[in-house]
Specification:
Elements lengths: L3 H12 L1 H12 L2 H17 L9 E5 L5 H8 L3 E6 L2 H11 L7 E4 L12 E7 L8 H11 E11 L9 H17 L10 H8 L11 H9 L3 E6 L2 H5 L2 H6 L6 E6 L1
Parallel strand pairs: 1-2, 1-4, 2-3, 4-5
Antiparallel strand pairs: 5-7, 6-7
Helix pairs in contact: 2-5
Length: 257
């Protein structure tokens, strides 16, 4: 039986599926598609320099409306994509079009994967771990489904840490002013901020300094070549994203099993 917090999270993201899907659709037609594919394939090539895309099995955890799954399937990789919400998977299948026949979509909790051990060459995720109830267990489960020598990639940020830090709160408020001044879309207007803040206050990684926490957690479970890159946002975000989230830059965690 899932916890009340899990169900609250699931309800929030289910309700947001359509709006979040629109964001992914914009990414698929904008700079982000090229930027993200370049970044991810560069990381994969560093670990698998000889393999062709079709020889590698990738697991996209918390796929949401399917952005990572779609761009990687288009590039020729074998992709499995999981999400805990049926509405997000429905959007992902719709967004993937003909590729929906090649991507293996599964309804599954990212924290409790049910795949056999050593099933994937790459496990990757974006904007997920910060909102999980059991992040340490999640990393352990991701490690288990990776093949020896496999690559883990996690892209995330210190989302909602402003709830615990006055300086970060000022940065967040300045971001909102900058968005207004420059007359661009405010990405926070597409969210139920009160509901998201209520959830953020209950999950363990809100207020924790990351990626330091992640480095410690992955070293603890004996992952190898554990590194972080705090500048990845500069390479993958659009100009609009850089203004919206200036006070909450994205980082990348990379590790090898």
């Amino acid at each position: 039986m899932q916890s009340e917090l899990f169900e609250a999270n699931k309800k929030y993201w289910s309700n947001r599926a359509q709006g979040y899907s629109q964001v992914n659709q914009e990414e698929l037609t904008g700079l982000q598609k090229t930027n993200w594919l370049r970044e991810i394939t560069r990381q994969i090539a560093a670990v698998y320099p000889q393999q062709k895309p079709e020889e590698l099995n990738i697991l996209d955890v918390g796929t949401g409306p399917g952005f990572f799954a779609i761009i990687l399937a288009e590039a020729g990789y074998q992709v499995t994509a999981v999400d805990a919400t049926a509405s997000m998977l429905a959007e992902a299948k719709r967004n993937s079009g003909a590729l929906s026949e090649t991507i293996d979509f599964r309804l599954m909790d990212a924290q409790e994967l049910t795949f056999e051990d050593s099933s994937f060459d790459v496990v990757l995720s974006r904007n997920l771990t910060w909102v999980l109830e059991k992040p340490e267990q999640t990393y352990l489960n991701w490690q288990k489904v990776l093949r020896p020598g496999g690559l883990l990639l996690n892209f995330d940020a210190n989302w909602y840490n402003y709830l615990h830090d006055d300086a970060l709160k000022q940065g967040y408020e300045q971001d909102r002013r900058n968005v207004s001044i420059q007359q661009i879309d405010d990405h926070y207007l597409g969210t139920d901020i009160d509901a998201m803040e209520a959830i953020a206050l209950r999950v363990p990684l809100t207020g924790v300094q990351r990626p330091e926490w992640d480095l410690h957690a992955l070293n603890k479970i004996k992952m190898r070549s554990v590194t972080s890159d705090n500048s990845v946002w500069q390479r993958v975000w659009s100009p609009v994203e850089k203004i919206n989230y200036a006070s909450t830059p994205m980082f990348m965690i990379a590790a090898v099993k």
